[in-house]
Specification:
flat; 84 residues; 4 helices; alpha+beta; single chain
Length: 84
């Protein structure tokens, strides 16, 4: 049963609030637009911009598992290499 737009928006708002209070340096979203639409990505991007936090999204199911993990590894290495 697909999620309705109210549920998607509520979850997106909760995720954004979590990002804001958690004070991350980088947020990496494993984006699943087939399930969530664009709401979580949009609100995470907005929350990160508000907090001055780097935001990166990686779409799940867009490539093979091996390619997905390689892309995630690259993102994490880049993020960790920017730490003081």
């Amino acid at each position: 049963m697909p999620l309705d737009s109210e549920v998607k928006e509520n979850v997106a708002d909760q995720v954004a609030q979590y990002v804001i209070v958690s004070r991350y340096e980088t947020v990496v979203l494993l984006d699943d637009p087939e399930t969530w639409g664009s709401s979580i990505k949009r609100e995470c991007r907005r929350a990160c911009a508000k907090m001055g936090v780097q935001f990166v999204s990686l779409r799940v199911h867009a490539q093979s598992t091996k390619e997905f993990l390689a892309a995630l590894e690259t993102i994490l290495k880049k993020s960790l290499s920017n730490k003081p």
